[in-house]
Give the backbone structure.
Amino acid sequence: NAGVTQTPKFRVLKTGQSMTLLCAQDMNHEYMYWYRQDPGMGLRLIHYSVGEGTTAKGEVPDGYNVSRLKKQNFLLGLESAAPSQTSVYFCASSSAETQYFGPGTRLLVL
Amino acid sequence: AQKITQTQPGMFVQEKEAVTLDCTYDTSDPSYGLFWYKQPSSGEMIFLIYQGSYDQQNATEGRYSLNFQKARKSANLVISASQLGDSAMYFCAMRGGGSQGNLIFGKGTKLSVKP
């Protein structure tokens, strides 16, 4: 049972490049989330999904897009990366009581 | 608006002693959940303990217990018999009663266990 997995683990981008972060969960959870973590801060919500085919904005959605075409996958896209998007990105999926986090993706935008 | 406050940026504790990490919260929702996560230097977020707002008893999980004082809006984490492996960042988080179910996080407390 893998839980929540994220791909890639680490990536370096140049300003203006695009990329997609992939999150997969095998727990059949309806709810999935993308957070970012910056130094000295807790996690902040970027986007979330309450089910296949549905997405919504969180606290810091600007510069990101998401898609949930399959229940088990939640994709986070950066169309034109900016240095301000240098961060650690965490995906999570949720049961009734607990959120399970992936291992994180460290993104550096130069 | 919902908010989590962790006022201790860093804490030190001697190995085998108990330590309390503070967390206060603010919400107008009658139904909410409180969580603690551990983040070691390797970076993953590890779920430790959960307390529901209607739970009558304080949650416990092994060496972790949550001291829930609803009237004071506090949800302190108590770690008994600290171990060197407990050195990490600890985050308090809250889930409100809204439909999205996301967590609101505090800024964390860095715990260092001394041998």
User: Anything to note?
Assistant: The first strand of chain B starts at residue 3 and ends at 5. The two ends of chain B are 41 Å apart (CA to CA). Chain B has a mean pLDDT of 94.
